[in-house]
Design brief:
Elements: H1 2-35, E1 40-48, E2 54-65, E3 69-71, H2 73-83, H3 86-107, E4 114-118, H4 121-124, H5 129-140, E5 147-152, H6 153-156, H7 161-171, E6 176-182, H8 189-194, E7 199-202, H9 204-208, H10 214-229, E8 233-236, H11 242-251, E9 255-256, E10 265-266, H12 267-275
Parallel strand pairs: 2-4, 4-5, 5-6, 6-7, 7-8, 8-9
Antiparallel strand pairs: 1-2, 1-9, 1-10, 2-3
The protein binds ligand C2E and calcium ion (3 copies).
One calcium ion (CA) binds at residues 180-181, 201, 237.
Amino acid sequence: AKATGGSVFTSYRTQMRDGLIERLELENDLRTACENHQLRLYYQPTVDLDTSQVVGFEALVRWPHPTRGMINPLDFIPIAEATGLIVPLGRWVLEEACRQAVQWSEAAGGRPLKMSVNVSVRQFDQPDFTETVAAVLAETGMPADRLCLEMTESVLMTDTEANLEQLVRLKALGITLAIDDFGTGYSSLAYLRRFPVDTLKIDRSFVERLGVLADDTALTDTIVRLGKSLGMATVAEGIEEFGQLAALREMGCGFAQGYYFSRPVPAAEAGRLFLEGADT
Ligand code: C2E
Ligand code: CA
Ligand code: CA
Ligand code: CA
């Protein structure tokens, strides 16, 4: 019995160790990838539901790993956050996305292009985050009002004075702010009014069950109306089917993203989508 217990214990320890080694390896690789500019941005179009035009993109980071293949952001953003690598990584994303936006807009005769960039709490908490954004805007020539920073409710709605102050300073640059995955966290209505937010991004989990679950349909409708009454734009995430699109149009949702229109695509393809005007 003792021997069996020992071997179970050993194999458990081996597993733990292997998991840890795997994680350390990934962490090392990620550091190298950042230093050697191996990360890539993909872009998913945002469609104006009134005109069916592509009006902008959300930048989504990708990691083409030399041996493991394409790694999903959900598998490395948490590592980047835990190690602090998210700070330089996030700055690179911001810069690259703005540079692309300016380039595509110029190629399209100056047609405005809205670029959305995801910001994690670790970045936002840097005391010089506003200065970083200002520097990127200046370096790239990106008009501030065409940049949208996406943050989750937990980042935006933490009711500390420092948080609010940081948001106000950011907003003073002239950028827009979106609450990502709206409806999955908890935003009190009072906070929503108090915080300088421009856009609500309706989480994919609601859109997924549009027309299937009456409750989710009602909730989506409520979020769209909430946005309207607060003077905020609404963007629906994760549209995959025509029925969902029709329902959202009917509700008066302003914008949408999702596989129905396009998956996130590499830069060259996104540039073409924008140039073509991409009527959908
Ligand atoms: P998110 O910001 O909520 O981004 C939307 C995710 O949903 C993306 O996954 C996108 O590819 C996916 N998606 C879009 N349309 C559809 C659809 O119709 N159906 C389905 N099933 N999925 C759809 P992705 O690219 O894997 O990114 C996952 C998350 O990783 C993002 O969620 C975001 O939180 C984070 N992330 C991505 N890029 C960055 C970045 O540059 N910085 C930071 N801090 N986080 C990032
Ligand atoms: Ca997002
Ligand atoms: Ca989202
Ligand atoms: Ca999400």
